[in-house]
Amino acid sequence: MPAAPPAAPDTTTDVVLVVDFGAQYAQLIARRVREARVYSEIVPSTMPVAEMLAKNPRAIILSGGPSSVYAEGAPSLDRALFEAGVPVFGMCYGFQLMATTLGGTVDDNGAREYGRTALAVSKAGSTLFEGTPTEQSVWMSHGDACSAAPEGFTVTASTDVVPVAAFENDEKKLYGVQYHPEVLHSTHGQQVLEHFLYRGAGIEPNWTTTNVVEEQVAAIRAQVGDKRAICGLSGGVDSAVAAALVQKAIGSQLTCVYVDHGLMRKGETEQVEKDFVAATGAKLVVVDAEKRFLDALAGVSDPEQKRKIIGREFIRVFEQAQLEILQEDGPEVAFLVQGTLYPDVVESGGGTGTANIKSHHNVGGLPDDIEFELVEPLRQLFKDEVRMVGQELGLPEEIVQRQPFPGPGLGIRIVGEVTKERLDLLRDADAIAREELTRAGLDRDIWQCPVVLLADVRSVGVQGDGRTYGHPIVLRPVSSEDAMTADWSRLPYETLAKISTRITNEVADVNRVVLDVTSKPPGTIEWE
Ligand SMILES: Nc1ncnc2c1ncn2[C@@H]1O[C@H](COP(=O)(O)OP(=O)(O)OP(=O)(O)O)[C@@H](O)[C@H]1O
Ligand SMILES: O=c1[nH]c(=O)c2[nH+]cn([C@@H]3O[C@H](COP(=O)(O)O)[C@@H](O)[C@H]3O)c2[nH]1
Ligand SMILES: NC(=O)CC[C@H](N)C(=O)O
Ligand SMILES: [Mg+2]
C-alpha cells in the first residue's frame, strides 16, 4: 500500500496556524512567526474550521491571496473561527475576509496600492502599533479595500487612499491590517506581528531550535517505535541534520544509505564517507548505483522526466538496501528518513494551490508504489532554520555550512541527454569552479554555484589556431536566504576570468564559459 503523505507529528503546544489563501508569502509569515520564537505551521484555507481548532492553536493568522472576497467562489471562512475565542490576525485578503465575515464593507472602490505606501497610525498606543512611529512605511499589494470596519472594531491606521488600513478588537482578540507586515519592506512589520503574538494573543516567546530537537526526537520515537529505519544520506546539510536527529531518537535502529548514482561531483563520495561517519559515528552503507541510473536516464532530455526517473530509482535502491539490512537479524525496516525541507514541498506543488515548478526528487518525484513510511522531521523548516538545528545538535561547521547540492545532482545540470562522457566533462568543469571560488574565499558569500553544461548547444571557437565547435558551460552563482528567491552573485571579475580560462584550457570540448545573470524569479536556481 502506498504510504500516506506524512504530516509533521504535532507535538507542539504553542502552535500558531497560518491559514493560506493562496498567498505569495504564506511561508514567509510562518517563518516570521518562528523568528518571533513562536512555533507556526501552515494549513490550507480549505481545511474545515473544526479541524483547525482541533489543533489547539494559540492564535491564527489569515494570509493574503489573489481572490476578491466578494467574487463568486472566493475562499471563505466559517464565522465560527472568529467566535472560538482564539486570537486571529488577518493580513490583506485575510483582513478583508475578516471584515466582510463580521459585517464590515470591502469593495473595489479604486483604492489600489502596490508597493511602498505611507501608513498613518491613528491610535498610537494600540495593541498592534504601540511603540511604533505614527508615520511608517509599509508594503501594500491590493486592489480591493475596506471602507467600513465591522462593529466593535477600532480603526487604528489609514493611508491616503484607504480609510481603514488596520483595525483592532481587543475584547474579541481580533486584529487585521491591509498591508503585508511579513515582508522586510514593511519597516515595523515584525514588531507589529510580535505585538499581535505577545500582546494580542498572550503567547510567550519561548520556541527555539532546542524545542525542535526535543519535539522531533520524541515524535520520531513515537513514529518508529522498535522498528528500523534507513536514511537517505547525501552529504548535504538537510540529510545530515535529519540523520543526526533520527540517530539521537532511535540510535542503532538507523542505517544511513548513501547512493552513488554517478551524478555526484568529484570527490563527493569520499567526502561523505569521511565527514559524516567521523562526525556522528552513524552506520553507513554506500551503494554503487551508477549503471542503474545511467541506464534509466539513457535517451531522456526532458527535465521533469529526468526528475521522475531519478526519484523512482532512488526508492528502488533504498528497497534493495533494505533487503541487505534485513539479512542481519532484527525487526522490519519500515521507515525511510529524508531531509525534505519546506521549499522542496512548495516547489513540487505541495503547498496550497501552489503551482508545480519542478518535481523535487524527494517529494514530487517519488513513485506511487513506495512502501516505506516517510520520516521527514524538517518538512516545515527553511534551510537557515535547519542549519541552526544542526548547530544545536553539535554537527561540525563543514557540514552545517555546506552549500546545497540537489539530489538529482549533475543529471539536472546537463541540458540534454545525460551520458557518462558528458558527466565526466561537467565534473571537471565543476571541480575547477569550486576550487577557484574556495580559493577566492567566496564560499560563504554565495548560496551555491551550479555549473551547467549546455550539451545540445555548440558554438564556434578558435583554439591553438584551429577551429573548434564545442559546448558552452554556464556559471550560475546565486545569493539567497532560503532558495525561494535568489539573486545572481556579483562575483569579482578576476575570479570569473580565472574560472573561464581554466575551464576552456583544461576541459576538452568546452570552448565558451557564460555567466547567468538572472534572478529567481523569473529564473530558478537550477536550469532544469
Ligand atoms: N546521493 C544520495 N543518497 C542518498 N540520499 C540522497 C542522496 N541525495 C539526496 N538524498 C536524499 O534526498 C533528500 C533531499 O536532497 P537535498 O539535496 O534537498 O538535501 P541534502 O542533500 O540533504 O541537503 P542540501 O540541500 O544541503 O544538498 C536528502 O535529504 C536525502 O535524504
Ligand atoms: O534535493 C533536491 N532535489 C531536487 O530535485 C532539487 N531541485 C532543486 N534543488 C535545490 O533546491 C534549491 C532551489 O532550486 P530551484 O531554484 O532550481 O528550484 C536549490 O538549492 C537547488 O539546488 C533540489 N534539491
Ligand atoms: N495581496 C492580497 O491579499 C490581495 C487581496 C485581494 N486579492 C486584493 O487585491 O485586494
Ligand atoms: Mg543535496
From TrEMBL:
<dbReference type="Pfam" id="PF02540">
    <property type="entry name" value="NAD_synthase"/>
</dbReference>
<dbReference type="InterPro" id="IPR001674">
    <property type="entry name" value="GMP_synth_C"/>
</dbReference>
<feature type="active site">
    <location>
        <position position="180"/>
    </location>
</feature>
<keyword id="KW-0315">Glutamine amidotransferase</keyword>
<keyword id="KW-0067">ATP-binding</keyword>
<feature type="binding site">
    <location>
        <begin position="234"/>
        <end position="240"/>
    </location>
    <ligand>
        <name>ATP</name>
    </ligand>
</feature>
<dbReference type="InterPro" id="IPR022310">
    <property type="entry name" value="NAD/GMP_synthase"/>
</dbReference>
<dbReference type="InterPro" id="IPR022955">
    <property type="entry name" value="GMP_synthase"/>
</dbReference>
<keyword id="KW-0547">Nucleotide-binding</keyword>
<keyword id="KW-0332">GMP biosynthesis</keyword>
<comment type="pathway">
    <text>Purine metabolism; GMP biosynthesis; GMP from XMP (L-Gln route): step 1/1.</text>
</comment>
<dbReference type="InterPro" id="IPR004739">
    <property type="entry name" value="GMP_synth_GATase"/>
</dbReference>
<feature type="active site" description="Nucleophile">
    <location>
        <position position="92"/>
    </location>
</feature>
<feature type="domain" description="GMPS ATP-PPase">
    <location>
        <begin position="207"/>
        <end position="402"/>
    </location>
</feature>
<comment type="function">
    <text>Catalyzes the synthesis of GMP from XMP.</text>
</comment>
<dbReference type="InterPro" id="IPR017926">
    <property type="entry name" value="GATASE"/>
</dbReference>
<dbReference type="InterPro" id="IPR025777">
    <property type="entry name" value="GMPS_ATP_PPase_dom"/>
</dbReference>
<dbReference type="GO" id="GO:0003922">
    <property type="term" value="F:GMP synthase (glutamine-hydrolyzing) activity"/>
</dbReference>
<keyword id="KW-0658">Purine biosynthesis</keyword>
<dbReference type="Pfam" id="PF00117">
    <property type="entry name" value="GATase"/>
</dbReference>
<keyword id="KW-0436">Ligase</keyword>
<feature type="active site">
    <location>
        <position position="182"/>
    </location>
</feature>
<comment type="subunit">
    <text>Homodimer.</text>
</comment>
<protein>
    <recommendedName>
        <fullName>GMP synthase [glutamine-hydrolyzing]</fullName>
        <ecNumber>6.3.5.2</ecNumber>
    </recommendedName>
</protein>
<dbReference type="Pfam" id="PF00958">
    <property type="entry name" value="GMP_synt_C"/>
</dbReference>
